[in-house]
Queue: 2 jobs
Job 1
Amino acid sequence: MTTRVTKQKKQHKQGMLDNVMRQFDNAADIIGLNPNIRKILEVTNNELVVHFPVRMDNGEVEVFTGYRVQHNNALGPYKGGLRYHPTVDIDAARALAMWMTWKTSLAGLPYGGAKGGIQLDPTKYSNSELERITRRFTYALGDNIGPELDIPAPDVNTNAQTMAWILDTYMSTKSPAERSTNMHVVTGKPIGAGGSEGRDRATGYGVFLTIKFWTESKKVDLKDKKFIVQGFGNVGYWAAHFLEKEGAVLIAVQDAYGSITNESGISVEKLFEFSQANKGSILGFSDSHAIDNTDFFGLDCDIIIPAALGNQITAENAQHIKAYLIAEGANGPTDVEAEEILLKKGIDIIPDILCNSGGVIGSYYEWLQNRNGEIWQLEEVMEKLEKKLRESFSKVSEISEDRKVDMRTAAFIIAIERLEKTYVQRGIFP
Ligand SMILES: NC(=O)C1=CN([C@@H]2O[C@H](COP(=O)(O)OP(=O)(O)OC[C@H]3O[C@@H](n4cnc5c(N)ncnc54)[C@H](O)[C@@H]3O)[C@@H](O)[C@H]2O)C=CC1
Ligand SMILES: O=C(O)CCC(=O)C(=O)O
């Protein structure tokens, strides 16, 4: 059961979609974006909604709804993650797909933007149910994904195992010759199944690097700086891991289950071990005490890393923020109203499309290796990632200074101008 809609009209609604559209409009106004190109970029190219049945462990059948939104592919194949979460719906997928287009453009990658997922709470399903759900979703997506068309990757509640199931299912629909040459249909795979060294940590490492570049540019030493992290999954954990190695101190964490703090410091590795043994939850970690979720963002710290869901920093809690830097590991964690308040307070925000772009850059390296039959060592991947992120960070800083705009606006300007150039050069809208 498939609904395919082409060129969905722009919809303004509260939430992530509203935020990404306002961020886009702001930058498009500043550069005076060609109105025809604006019309193209403010809508999504394709939207796929699939309803598919899966047999549960108890023998009953449940019908799930999955999404894949392909926003734009002017610069290359669609690229972006798959999310398994109750909040996944068509607007969330649209917003996240648009952010992917700006992110890949800013990073200078030969990709467009897409995003998708399934509306479900994965904690309610067994591992074998999740495998069957993923495989049926992959069949339902069919040839709407592909190594040169649309390449999914991990996002919230999906991981290397999920990508391996997708790869295996996709391959089973192909001829023997195609099976050996289509490994790059997904990225973020386990290393034994065509994954790349370093993709697991690439997003968190990128978050850490952008913080490091920012502190270097402000002549601030990261040692002993206090940071807090919302979301202790792939992105939150790895960002905290690298910051701790640099001498910064983790003093509070919030996840889907609650918030904990210890002003003298929380060991990142001990908390990680604890959460792994505690079904992914940080609650109950001995070397800390629980605090109310509403007090989290107002804690006395230097750096905040939102690394969970969208719309977490709002006009309500932005007033209480004491940190001087927000590094957006998550996509869309700060809404437009909150950003205005934070900027007025002199708080800098490293925007998501720059801050968490290490993930898709790492995915690009995996895709390239699969495509070219190469295998790179971890050191090589990390070096390339650092070089690419440093270039992106420098460009954003330069535009931010030259045009006297905040870092998000600068990042959007770079991303949109690259897309504008490609349309103009192709002669579609001179
Ligand atoms: N995995 C990746 O490579 C990339 C992820 N991102 C973004 O980073 C964010 C986190 O993604 P992952 O770490 O991959 O997901 P994950 O599934 O590994 O971890 C998510 C974390 O967020 C927590 N969380 C969920 N709901 C929450 C809530 N309401 N309040 C507080 N915490 C909550 C979970 O408990 C978990 O600790 C997402 O916004 C994702 O789009 C961005 C770029 C790449
Ligand atoms: O690695 C990728 O292809 C995309 C990861 C992602 O979903 C994101 O950057 O938000």
Job 2
Amino acid sequence: MILSSNLGYPRIGINRDLKFALEKYWKNGISLDELQQTADRIKTANWIVQKDMGLDFVPSNDFSFYDQVLDTTFMLGAIPERFKQEKDLEGLDLYFAMARGWHNDQGKTIPAMEMTKWFNTNYHYLVPEINANTKFKLNPAKPIDSYKLAQTLNLNTRPVIIGPVTFLLLSKSEDPSFNPLNKLDEVMDLYANLFKRLREMEVKWIQLDEPFLSMDLDGLGEDAYQQLFNRFNSHHGRPKVMLTTYFGDLFANRDLIAASPFEGLHLDMTNCSQPERVLASVQEGQMVSLGLIDGRNVWKNDLTKTLNTIKEIYERFHFENIVVSPSCSMLHVPQDLRMEKNLPGEVYLWLAFARQKLEELSELKKAGNRNFTPTSFFQNNQGDVQSRREIAKIEALQITAAHKAVSTKRQSSFAQRKASQQAVLYLPVLPTTTIGSFPQTSEVRKLRSQLQKNAISYEQYKGELEREIEKTIHFQEKIGLDILVHGEFERNDMVQYFAEKMDGFVFTDNGWVQSFGSRCVRPPIIYGVVSRPEAMTVRWATFAQSLTDKPVKGMLTGPVTILQWSFVRDDQPRSETCRQIAFAIRAEVQDLEAAGIKVIQIDEPALREGLPLQKKDWPAYLDWAVECFQISSSGVKDETQIHTHMCYAEFNDIIEAIARMDADVISIEASRSKMELLQAFQKFNYPNEIGPGVYDIHSPNIPDVAEIHDLIHNALEVIPAEQLWINPDCGLKTRQWAEVEPALKNMLAAVKQARKELAG
Ligand SMILES: Nc1nc2c(c(=O)[nH]1)N[C@@H](CNc1ccc(C(=O)N[C@@H](CCC(=O)N[C@@H](CCC(=O)N[C@@H](CCC(=O)O)C(=O)O)C(=O)O)C(=O)O)cc1)CN2
Ligand code: MET
Ligand SMILES: [Zn+2]
């Protein structure tokens, strides 16, 4: 039999209902009840769609108010100590405090948990904090309540649970010598209890997410999985378990997986180099789930080809059942293509969002159970897939001349450039700057939405934004920043803005994908050859520069980040698409320089997240990623100072590649980890300049002078003063002016103090 399953559905609501409800709740605009009702409506709507598509396994517990890893932390009762001290914080408010930080009117603050990237996606999770003294306590309400809610729709769902090994491997300890895996036994006791509770409710299957099985594992990791398998060896007292892996290739861990006692195995067929050999590790009687529909991209599946693959596997391995599935949770794709009214007709035909992917699964199942005879749905599908191929072929003929041979190196060494730049910029010790964006207020967004609806003219829009820029420039001058920015008010998003100005991209009206908490992005779709018809940022930058004698930094998004945060064509190597973007950015950098901009920042926050999941694939990626940054940044004079910016990065293992990028200044996120990650730069003797963030912009908390001053001191312990810049962690777009103004003033007060101390 061919069955079908889903691993997780977008949970933000068809019109981003959850986002709006959350943000209102945080502002005390709606009650907890109303928030809960919105959540239940979203869950219910999702279940109804999935039920109607005839899925055999519909997920529950895939909804989250903020993040599924935080949910797991909460379920296990692993609340960090600092949140327990505030006795009144409980329930969902405690949960949100952990996610966003907390403060009261008396000025007491509790910093949020650290946030970082979920594997190689643009989704962020909150890093569990597990220490030797962490006490666990099972709080199974969420999976249980969600299962019960689905039952009211006559649906017996498959709860999604992050597995214990993955949970601990995602965790961090404040004591670097303590490995959270030491808590595995204790945590597995709670899981055993949870499984028992679910079994008592007659839950048949659970989906146990263990994506680390498709990553590189060291001895400890392998050992942990062995322990997991031993512990749950018997199927008594628990539901059946679909051991679920995704994002990476299972090949390296195939022997480990062959020892799994679980009743099912899900593998990501879109990341599987040798499916036959991996499938050979599936045991007699195990239910195999094939992740054939790409849960990370938006292209229509080639159903004819996929049906053939299923047939071959079925005949070759004699599996009793095969479950057809998306490769991973569909959290990472937009919900419903039918909401899109403005996509070019031919491109529309090439796309499938979450709902359309369910339809593909349903058709594959139908065809599979009709002795692998295609349904009528297959005909259109084949036409669409074919038309995409034809157009790509025609294009391929046109682009041979697209890449010019250029030098990817700056003209002189960093030391020489530094001298030339100082002669133009006259920077003090510990120069200060910001990362680019200032608050994207609802007024600014409203202007853009009015422009789109033709309710205001472009001239009006431009005039209003210029007023914002003036206000921002004057504010920065007044508080004494050294390198100013224009504030990025004209940008809906740092990737989408550029994509909209380049050829080769299309955009959605409603293709929202959750990035973290209530924040969403609409990743552009790269379908053709990328090029830049005209300058994209020069007018805003020169306008800002005309208002001040201080240098204004030109702000660009780098090629790797534009690639990484878009849906990318899957019919040519990513490196090729990235190179096309790099040439477009290079031209923009040169135009900015020609227009008199002396400092240019090329943001590459996604360079780290783009790293392949398995180390063997790193060197090849880093080679082309660094080369693309160099293509973008090397076409300028020595005097032009190039900055780059990265957030949420673990730099230890890529510091050599970061150095090869040869940016004059790099700013990084560092405050939540208290400058810990600067050690990588110190160890490597990183030669260029560094601005570690001294203020956590993801939290509404306002850092005080002493706190920032301490962080500057931590930084000075590892980085020489001549190399150190002072800036926030990241852009300020998600903050309000009422938060930004005092925070930046405090930052400058702390710098003033530090400069005095340095002067002795
Ligand atoms: N692509 C991307 N990935 C990223 C980041 C990033 O900046 N971009 N940063 C990190 C994650 N951080 C993020 C930080 C902020 C937001 C964010 O603020 N997103 C906004 C949407 C931004 C946007 O597209 N804005 C549009 C549309 C805004 C909108 O909702 N407009 C209203 C109307 C406006 C109104 O009346 O208020 C509508 O269309 O209904 C605009 O400004 O034009 C949100 O969720 O609210 C997202 C990610 C890592 N990954
Ligand atoms: C996610 S990195 C953001 C960089 C961008 N220049 C900003 O300030 O918003
Ligand atoms: Zn950033």
